[in-house]
Amino acid sequence: MMAGLGLRRLASPVTANVLAAVAVLTVAAVIWLEVLIHEGNLGQDIGNLIIFMSFGAVGVVVARAQPRNPVGWLLLAGALALALSSAGGEYAVLVYRLRHESLPLGPVAVLVDLLWAPGIVTFGLIVLLFPDGRLTCGWRRVMWAYLAVARRWCSPRPCRCSLASKRAPDRRGQRRRPARHRQSLG
Asked: I need a surface site. Which of 83, 116, 125, 171 has the fewest CB within 10 A?
């Protein structure tokens, strides 16, 4: 019962404003980092950031007007996660590719860059919960299946496929047989 009261207190217009401010500062940081990097992707990044901020602005409006509606909070969280992911990716490029190793938090930037996956997952939840933030009985199963797939998709486990078992082309462009087959044909 205390957790529900705490969440209600957190879901307030003030919280929406704070998250919106963090999102705006993150977008400003992404633009600043892109200018520092000089990779020529500024137009694409600004286009993405406009989309993120559009979702975030709608999320702030809904979260302020209807704090109990999860659609607004999910819009805001998804936009913030994608903006943070962009900032983390740009910062990681600055630290690792452009060799500015003296800058702090390089490993944190790499981890923050991975927020794109949960950011995308939130938009699927928005579709399921639109417009009033509630699910009907039939859609509950779809949501749980979606969350199970999303959890697997976002998990940091490595792929179990073996690249060593794939046949590599030889110098003539033909596929070689793996070593165990060459010996048996021998």
From this structure: 171
